[in-house]
Amino acid sequence: MERQGASATGPGPVRVLVVDDQRPFRTAAAAVIARMPGWEVAGVAETGEDAVAVAEGLRPDLVLMDYNLPGIDGAQAAARVREVAPQAATVLCSTYRAEDLRIDPATIAGYLHKEELGAPVLRALWARIHPAA
What single Pfam family name could you report for this chain, choosing any that match (predicted)? Predict the structure, then answer.
């Protein structure tokens, strides 16, 4: 039987933090995740600074982070999230092409074009990040 979700830190759902300054994307991402067995929205944030604070408190498994955020950008926020929540894998989300973004593989686990948001893509990203999960 295929596992629909498995936390990086043990049994339980994949806990996702959604970070975007645009409410429509936060809402859409949360709706997709809510319909995925074995996954849950751990929290939401609107800025990079908020993402760091929320990640430290919630300890998510996965952070879906917009690249273009007010204040610190998604790449900078991902590096800070890595410091406070090292178990969290950050996937940058954008309408820009991945080649046009400053992506550091040491802090960014993947890239998602916002138009590709969907359960199959999220599962594939997670499987690539955590093959044993």
Answer: Response_reg
Decide: 92 and 112 in contact? Cβ < 8 Å: yes
Burial (CB < 10 A; 0-12, 13-18, 19+), residue 31, is exposed
Integer Cα distance of 118 and 31 in angstroms: 10
Give the residue from 96, 99, 89 showing the smallest Cα distance to 122. 89
Residue with tokens 């996965």: 62
- Please give the pLDDT value at position 1: 28
pTM score, whole prediction: 0.88
Distance, C-alpha 62 to centroid of its chain: 4
